[in-house]
Amino acid sequence: MVSQLLEIMDQFGRDGLTPLLKEWHRYDIYYGRAVTLQMGTRQIEGIHRGINDAGALLLEEGGAIRVYHGGEVSLRSTKAVGRAVNGMKQD
């Protein structure tokens, strides 16, 4: 297992992320799910559409796919988070 990890790390060092994207997408448990991207005080809701060859998040918003290079992704909607913070029962 360690030897496989070292081999993948060598490949990444040589070739970047592009050759690994197909396998990455195969194991991406967020793909196609509604997510909230937290960027400081800004919250963006959309559908997770994977990552690009630079490792940036692809988020579908209103039918358009946008690219984000930072932030924290949550599967909880901002509405559910707001209810939890305010002590209200979640759906």
List the helices and strands in order. HHEEEEEH
Shape: elongated
CATH class: Mainly Beta
- The N- to C-terminal Cα distance equals 41 Å
How would you characterize the largest beta sheet? 5 strands, antiparallel
Work out the radius of gyration. 16 Å
Residues in β-strands, percent: 25-35%
Q: How many distinct domains?
A: 1
Helix count equals: 3
**How do the strands of the widest beta sheet line up side by side?**
4-3-2-1-5
What is the structural class? alpha+beta
What is the name of the CATH architecture? Roll
CATH fold title: SH3 type barrels
Query: What fraction, in percent, of the residue positions are helical?
Result: 25-40%
**Number of beta-strand segments:** 5
Low-confidence stretches: 80-91
Mean pLDDT: 84
Description:
This protein has 91 residues and is an alpha+beta fold. It has one domain: SH3 type barrels. It has a five-stranded antiparallel sheet, with no helix packed on it. The C terminus is likely disordered.
What is this structure, in a nutshell?
This protein has about 90 residues and is an alpha+beta fold. It is built from three helices and five strands, in the order H-H-E-E-E-E-E-H. The C terminus is likely disordered.
Write the layout of secondary structure elements.
Blueprint: H1 2-15, H2 21-26, E1 34-39, E2 42-51, E3 57-61, E4 64-68, E5 72-74, H3 78-85
Antiparallel strand pairs: 1-2, 1-5, 2-3, 3-4
List keywords for this structure.
91 residues, alpha+beta, SH3 type barrels, five-stranded antiparallel β-sheet, 31% helix, elongated, disordered C terminus
